[in-house]
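Researcher: Next entry in the queue.
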Amino acid sequence: MGIGGYVARSIAKELDNRSREFYEFVMPAIDMVEDGSDLVVTIDLPGFAKKDINLWITGNVLSISAKRGQEEALGTVYYRHRPVRIEKKVLLPISVKEEDKVVGKATYENGVVTLRVPIPKTTNIPVT
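Model: Structure for this entry, 128 residues:
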C-alpha cells in the first residue's frame, strides 16, 4: 500500500472518531411532556442493552449513562458511526428536593426508554 492509501485511511479514521464524538455529544434524542401528574421523558437509545442503561435524577438534572460492547468487525476495515458510550445530563422542567426520593418508572422497548417521573406537588401562594 502506498503512502496515499495510508493517508486516506488515517483521515477516514480521524473523521470517524470525530463523527462518533459528535454523536455522543448530541445524542440521544430526548422528548419531554407533562402527562397529568407525571413528567414523561422519552430517550432514544437504539442498540444499547437494557442492562447497560443507567438513569438518575439530582435536583433538576437527569443523568443518562449507556455503554455498548464492542462489535466484532466483519471486514478488514471497520468504520464505526454509532456511539459506544453516552454520558449526558439534561435539565428537567421540574426540580426534586434532596430529601425527596424520586420513584420513577422506566421501560425499554424497541430502543426507546420511557421514563415517568411524578411531578413534585407545588403549593399555591395566595396573593392578598
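Model: The first strand starts at residue 30 and ends at 35.
Researcher: Noted, moving on.
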